[in-house]
Amino acid sequence: MNTELLYMKNMSQIQCSSKIVDHHQDGDKTILVLNQTIFYPQGGGQPYDTGSIKSRDGNLVFRVQEVRFIDGVVHHIGVIENGDLSIGMEVNCFVDEDRRRLNTRIHSAGHLIDMALKELNIDWTPGKGYHFPQGAYVEYHGKIDGLDIEKLKTKIEKKCNEIISRNIETKIVFDENKLQNGKQMRTVFYGEYGIPCEGTHVSNLKEIISSGIRKIKKEKDAIRVSYSIGKQYT
Ligand SMILES: [Zn+2]
Fold this sequence. Notes:
Elongation Factor Tu (Ef-tu), domain 3; 2 helices; 17% helix; Alanyl-transfer RNA synthetases family profile domain-containing protein; nucleic acid binding; alanine-tRNA ligase activity; Ala-tRNA-synth_IIc_core; Alanyl-tRNA_Editing_Enzymes
Protein backbone atom coordinates (compact mmCIF):
# COMPACT_ATOMS: atom_id res chain seq x y z
CA MET A 1 0.00 0.00 0.00
CA ASN A 2 1.36 3.43 -0.96
CA THR A 3 1.94 5.94 1.83
CA GLU A 4 -0.36 8.96 1.67
CA LEU A 5 1.91 11.99 1.34
CA LEU A 6 0.35 14.71 3.47
CA TYR A 7 3.22 17.16 2.85
CA MET A 8 2.13 17.30 -0.82
CA LYS A 9 -1.14 19.01 0.20
CA ASN A 10 -0.02 21.06 3.16
CA MET A 11 3.60 22.13 3.07
CA SER A 12 3.65 23.95 6.41
CA GLN A 13 2.03 21.16 8.46
CA ILE A 14 4.63 19.55 10.72
CA GLN A 15 2.46 17.21 12.82
CA CYS A 16 -0.06 14.53 11.93
CA SER A 17 -1.73 11.43 13.28
CA SER A 18 -0.99 8.14 11.59
CA LYS A 19 -0.96 4.36 11.92
CA ILE A 20 1.90 1.86 11.73
CA VAL A 21 1.32 -0.48 8.78
CA ASP A 22 4.70 -2.22 8.68
CA HIS A 23 8.09 -2.31 10.37
CA HIS A 24 11.34 -4.21 10.01
CA GLN A 25 14.96 -4.16 11.11
CA ASP A 26 17.89 -3.22 8.91
CA GLY A 27 21.06 -3.74 10.94
CA ASP A 28 20.83 -1.50 13.99
CA LYS A 29 18.10 0.64 12.38
CA THR A 30 14.35 0.16 12.47
CA ILE A 31 12.29 1.00 9.40
CA LEU A 32 8.77 2.16 10.04
CA VAL A 33 6.01 2.40 7.42
CA LEU A 34 2.87 4.44 8.13
CA ASN A 35 -0.46 4.77 6.31
CA GLN A 36 0.16 8.52 5.94
CA THR A 37 3.04 10.86 6.71
CA ILE A 38 4.14 14.49 6.85
CA PHE A 39 7.83 13.50 6.78
CA TYR A 40 9.50 14.65 3.58
CA PRO A 41 11.65 11.90 2.06
CA GLN A 42 14.83 12.98 0.34
CA GLY A 43 14.26 13.88 -3.30
CA GLY A 44 14.37 16.64 -5.89
CA GLY A 45 17.57 17.92 -4.31
CA GLN A 46 15.85 18.59 -0.98
CA PRO A 47 17.11 16.82 2.16
CA TYR A 48 14.81 14.54 4.17
CA ASP A 49 13.05 15.58 7.36
CA THR A 50 13.99 14.30 10.79
CA GLY A 51 11.82 14.17 13.91
CA SER A 52 9.93 11.72 16.08
CA ILE A 53 6.99 9.34 15.98
CA LYS A 54 5.18 8.67 19.25
CA SER A 55 2.32 6.36 20.20
CA ARG A 56 -0.88 8.02 21.42
CA ASP A 57 -0.23 6.83 24.97
CA GLY A 58 3.29 8.29 24.79
CA ASN A 59 4.95 4.95 25.53
CA LEU A 60 6.60 4.48 22.13
CA VAL A 61 9.19 7.07 21.11
CA PHE A 62 10.78 6.50 17.71
CA ARG A 63 13.55 8.86 16.57
CA VAL A 64 13.36 9.48 12.78
CA GLN A 65 16.92 9.92 11.49
CA GLU A 66 16.39 9.50 7.76
CA VAL A 67 13.40 9.32 5.40
CA ARG A 68 13.35 7.67 1.97
CA PHE A 69 10.68 7.15 -0.70
CA ILE A 70 10.86 3.65 -2.22
CA ASP A 71 8.27 2.40 -4.73
CA GLY A 72 5.42 4.52 -3.39
CA VAL A 73 6.25 3.79 0.24
CA VAL A 74 7.88 6.20 2.71
CA HIS A 75 10.50 4.51 4.89
CA HIS A 76 11.02 6.22 8.26
CA ILE A 77 14.48 5.04 9.28
CA GLY A 78 15.66 5.42 12.85
CA VAL A 79 15.84 3.99 16.34
CA ILE A 80 13.36 3.13 19.08
CA GLU A 81 14.15 5.28 22.10
CA ASN A 82 11.37 3.90 24.26
CA GLY A 83 8.60 1.29 24.16
CA ASP A 84 7.65 -1.26 21.50
CA LEU A 85 6.21 -1.06 17.99
CA SER A 86 3.24 -2.97 16.72
CA ILE A 87 1.34 -3.03 13.45
CA GLY A 88 -1.93 -1.11 13.70
CA MET A 89 -0.59 1.15 16.47
CA GLU A 90 -1.98 4.71 16.37
CA VAL A 91 0.85 7.25 16.40
CA ASN A 92 1.56 10.97 16.10
CA CYS A 93 4.31 12.31 13.83
CA PHE A 94 6.42 15.35 14.71
CA VAL A 95 8.78 16.84 12.13
CA ASP A 96 11.79 18.84 13.41
CA GLU A 97 10.55 22.30 12.56
CA ASP A 98 13.85 24.20 12.30
CA ARG A 99 15.41 21.73 9.88
CA ARG A 100 12.25 21.56 7.72
CA ARG A 101 11.88 25.34 7.62
CA LEU A 102 15.52 25.86 6.63
CA ASN A 103 15.35 23.16 3.93
CA THR A 104 12.10 24.63 2.59
CA ARG A 105 13.55 28.15 2.41
CA ILE A 106 16.71 26.93 0.66
CA HIS A 107 14.64 24.88 -1.80
CA SER A 108 12.34 27.81 -2.62
CA ALA A 109 15.36 30.10 -3.02
CA GLY A 110 16.58 27.75 -5.77
CA HIS A 111 13.31 28.13 -7.69
CA LEU A 112 13.44 31.87 -7.06
CA ILE A 113 16.61 31.92 -9.20
CA ASP A 114 14.70 30.13 -12.02
CA MET A 115 12.03 32.79 -11.74
CA ALA A 116 14.57 35.65 -11.72
CA LEU A 117 16.28 34.28 -14.86
CA LYS A 118 12.93 34.13 -16.63
CA GLU A 119 12.12 37.73 -15.71
CA LEU A 120 15.59 38.78 -16.87
CA ASN A 121 15.01 36.98 -20.19
CA ILE A 122 18.07 34.81 -19.63
CA ASP A 123 17.37 31.73 -21.67
CA TRP A 124 18.81 28.98 -19.45
CA THR A 125 16.97 25.69 -18.91
CA PRO A 126 16.83 24.54 -15.27
CA GLY A 127 18.65 21.26 -14.57
CA LYS A 128 19.34 19.64 -11.22
CA GLY A 129 19.33 21.40 -7.89
CA TYR A 130 21.16 20.77 -4.64
CA HIS A 131 19.17 22.50 -1.90
CA PHE A 132 21.30 21.60 1.11
CA PRO A 133 22.38 24.13 3.75
CA GLN A 134 26.05 23.59 2.86
CA GLY A 135 26.84 24.53 -0.72
CA ALA A 136 23.36 24.96 -2.24
CA TYR A 137 23.29 25.34 -6.01
CA VAL A 138 21.07 25.11 -9.08
CA GLU A 139 22.31 24.07 -12.50
CA TYR A 140 21.21 25.26 -15.92
CA HIS A 141 21.84 24.49 -19.55
CA GLY A 142 22.51 27.44 -21.79
CA LYS A 143 25.15 29.88 -22.99
CA ILE A 144 27.66 31.47 -20.64
CA ASP A 145 30.67 32.12 -22.91
CA GLY A 146 31.44 35.80 -23.36
CA LEU A 147 29.20 36.91 -20.48
CA ASP A 148 30.51 39.14 -17.70
CA ILE A 149 30.03 36.76 -14.75
CA GLU A 150 30.44 39.39 -12.03
CA LYS A 151 27.83 41.64 -13.62
CA LEU A 152 25.51 38.70 -14.12
CA LYS A 153 25.82 37.63 -10.47
CA THR A 154 24.85 41.10 -9.29
CA LYS A 155 22.00 41.31 -11.77
CA ILE A 156 20.47 37.94 -10.77
CA GLU A 157 20.89 38.64 -7.05
CA LYS A 158 19.24 42.03 -7.39
CA LYS A 159 16.32 40.51 -9.29
CA CYS A 160 15.89 37.71 -6.70
CA ASN A 161 15.74 40.23 -3.86
CA GLU A 162 13.38 42.47 -5.79
CA ILE A 163 11.01 39.48 -6.28
CA ILE A 164 11.24 38.66 -2.53
CA SER A 165 10.20 42.24 -1.74
CA ARG A 166 6.99 41.78 -3.76
CA ASN A 167 5.44 39.66 -0.99
CA ILE A 168 4.34 36.87 -3.36
CA GLU A 169 2.13 34.06 -2.01
CA THR A 170 2.61 30.50 -3.26
CA LYS A 171 -0.16 28.01 -4.01
CA ILE A 172 -0.48 24.35 -4.98
CA VAL A 173 -2.53 23.15 -7.96
CA PHE A 174 -3.03 19.39 -8.30
CA ASP A 175 -3.40 17.60 -11.58
CA GLU A 176 -6.02 15.08 -10.44
CA ASN A 177 -5.47 12.66 -13.30
CA LYS A 178 -1.72 12.42 -13.41
CA LEU A 179 0.52 10.26 -11.30
CA GLN A 180 4.30 10.25 -11.40
CA ASN A 181 6.34 7.67 -9.46
CA GLY A 182 3.21 6.86 -7.45
CA LYS A 183 2.71 10.51 -6.52
CA GLN A 184 -0.05 12.80 -7.68
CA MET A 185 1.42 15.47 -9.95
CA ARG A 186 1.16 19.04 -8.84
CA THR A 187 2.33 22.49 -9.82
CA VAL A 188 3.41 25.02 -7.21
CA PHE A 189 2.80 28.63 -8.23
CA TYR A 190 4.96 31.51 -7.06
CA GLY A 191 2.43 34.15 -8.06
CA GLU A 192 1.98 33.43 -11.79
CA TYR A 193 5.17 31.39 -12.11
CA GLY A 194 4.40 27.65 -12.11
CA ILE A 195 6.87 24.97 -10.99
CA PRO A 196 6.19 21.22 -11.35
CA CYS A 197 7.87 20.09 -8.14
CA GLU A 198 7.27 17.64 -5.28
CA GLY A 199 9.35 19.41 -2.65
CA THR A 200 8.20 21.70 0.14
CA HIS A 201 7.95 25.42 -0.61
CA VAL A 202 7.54 28.58 1.48
CA SER A 203 3.99 29.95 1.67
CA ASN A 204 5.21 33.47 0.87
CA LEU A 205 8.48 34.29 -0.89
CA LYS A 206 9.32 36.83 1.82
CA GLU A 207 10.11 33.82 4.08
CA ILE A 208 13.33 33.39 2.06
CA ILE A 209 14.32 36.77 3.61
CA SER A 210 17.11 37.44 1.11
CA SER A 211 19.03 35.73 -1.66
CA GLY A 212 22.76 35.81 -2.30
CA ILE A 213 24.37 34.60 -5.54
CA ARG A 214 27.74 33.26 -4.39
CA LYS A 215 29.23 31.94 -7.59
CA ILE A 216 28.42 31.23 -11.23
CA LYS A 217 30.69 28.79 -13.02
CA LYS A 218 30.79 26.17 -15.72
CA GLU A 219 30.46 22.66 -14.32
CA LYS A 220 30.98 20.09 -17.08
CA ASP A 221 28.20 20.84 -19.59
CA ALA A 222 26.12 22.86 -17.12
CA ILE A 223 26.15 26.33 -15.57
CA ARG A 224 26.22 26.06 -11.80
CA VAL A 225 24.77 28.93 -9.76
CA SER A 226 25.71 28.66 -6.07
CA TYR A 227 23.50 30.58 -3.70
CA SER A 228 22.74 31.36 -0.08
CA ILE A 229 19.76 32.73 1.85
CA GLY A 230 19.37 35.31 4.59
CA LYS A 231 19.46 34.22 8.22
CA GLN A 232 16.21 33.83 10.09
CA TYR A 233 16.20 35.55 13.45
CA THR A 234 12.72 34.67 14.70
ZN1 LIG B 1 11.78 21.95 -6.45
